[in-house]
Amino acid sequence: MHAAFIDSFTNSTCDVFKTMFACELTRGAWQTKVSAVPAYEVSGVVGILGRAEGTVVVSLTRETAMLVAESFLGERPGSIDDSVIDSVGELANMIAGGAKARLGDWGLTIGLPTVLRGKNQIVIFPAKATPIAIPFDSDWGLLSVEVGLIY
Question: Which domains, and CATH codes, for the chain?
């Protein structure tokens, strides 16, 4: 995958967490994604079109998703409810939007986010894409940004 894509999604994710949540992320080494199952239980999925096309997945542990929702809402939800789903969708939208802005020359558009919850959900990346997973750790828990694009 083009280094500009990896850097754009990495920087966007770190910026969103720092600006919106005052939460610093530590990035792990990215790796080729071999499974269609997102890394964690709650995942925001955003489609991308333009000179590059594909899918972005922002996958969070249950606890990380709850903390994101708590930050947006000002109170902790009791479960993975609609407010958590909406919060994860907004987070995925913000990360994809930040990467899109950094990749202005690519003429990208992003779709509306869809949120998956539960174990063993499947995300289909474009057939010719080789998706990568960019893992992050933080005081809020683990997350992964998974990107599969063709260009």
Answer: 3-150 (3.40.1550.10)
